């Protein structure tokens, strides 16, 4: 029964799924997964009120809603930008003894960033800690990305230098790559280079994606001789990294743009 209901709800035939459920439930007992299928279905067609009603029906049938049940509705509210209801539902979860997990909070933080509610987004880690949920590296990487794209570079630095150490979360290569990319995007090459040096001193090994934003910045600032050579030397000789397809393409594209045809032909070979 669950497979049939899930297929119908996935295709947004939720009303038809309800009719079939009412006909079959006298012969086949529903389980918690059955109700979660309907919660996802109602949220998929933006009937969040019916998803709430399904939560109550789930409880009435003797099943406890799990973090997936609540998180599905929270995601729907996030898409609507209805954050007051998000916080109410988080409080309801806490009262029911069902704490939100890091995926739930990452969804909320990402939605707040998308809505440009950056002050609220920066408060999410504190709320997580108060509920006993620890942010992970992916959470902070996502927060850094959102803040960086919005040009809030001081907030990016604060998250990296203060919030991550306070939460006991170590950065990984993706963290540094996001920082370098954001600083280069906003013409803060010096800060980007500092992050690369910090990466070299830590336990994270740079990869090709670490260097691509720095290479692009060299061309934008017309520093294609000394600085570009230093970056490529560091990448190839010190870090022993090969130029992958994306780096080759990047170099050829920009060398052609600055009319350095000879160099681009050499790279093609």
From TrEMBL:
Keywords: Repeat. Pfam families: PPR_2 (PF13041). InterPro entries: PPR_rpt (IPR002885), TPR-like_helical_dom_sf (IPR011990). Transmembrane segments: none annotated. PPR repeats lie at residues 31-65, 66-100, 101-135, 136-171. Gene3D superfamilies: Tetratricopeptide repeat domain. The keyword Transferase does not apply. Coiled coil: none annotated. Belongs to the PPR family. P subfamily. NCBIfam families: PPR. This is Pentatricopeptide repeat-containing protein, mitochondrial. It comes from Glycine soja.
């Amino acid at each position: 029964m669950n497979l049939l209901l899930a297929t119908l709800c996935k295709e947004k035939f939720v009303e038809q799924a309800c009719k079939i459920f009412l006909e079959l439930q006298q012969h086949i007992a529903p389980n918690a997964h059955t109700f979660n299928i309907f919660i996802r279905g109602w949220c998929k067609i933006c009937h969040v009120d019916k998803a709430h009603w399904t939560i109550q029906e789930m409880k009435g049938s003797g099943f406890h809603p799990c973090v997936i049940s609540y998180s599905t509705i929270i995601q729907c509210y996030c898409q609507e930008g209805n954050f007051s209801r998000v916080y109410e539902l988080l409080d309801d979860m806490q009262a029911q003894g069902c704490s939100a997990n890091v995926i739930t909070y990452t969804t909320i933080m990402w939605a707040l960033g998308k809505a440009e509610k950056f002050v609220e987004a920066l408060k999410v880690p504190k709320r997580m800690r108060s509920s006993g949920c620890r942010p992970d590296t992916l959470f902070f990487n996502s927060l850094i990305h959102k803040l960086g794209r919005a040009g809030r570079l001081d907030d990016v630095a604060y998250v990296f230098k203060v919030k991550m150490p306070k939460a006991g979360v170590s950065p990984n290569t993706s963290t540094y790559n996001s920082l370098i990319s954001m600083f280069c995007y906003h013409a803060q090459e010096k800060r980007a280079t500092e992050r690369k040096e910090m990466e070299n001193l830590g336990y994270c090994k740079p990869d090709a994606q670490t260097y691509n934003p720095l290479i692009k910045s060299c061309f934008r600032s017309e520093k294609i001789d000394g600085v570009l050579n230093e970056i490529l030397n560091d990448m190839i000789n010190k870090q022993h990294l090969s130029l992958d397809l994306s780096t080759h393409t990047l170099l050829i594209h920009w060398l052609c743009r600055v009319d350095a045809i000879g160099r681009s032909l050499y790279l093609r070979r």
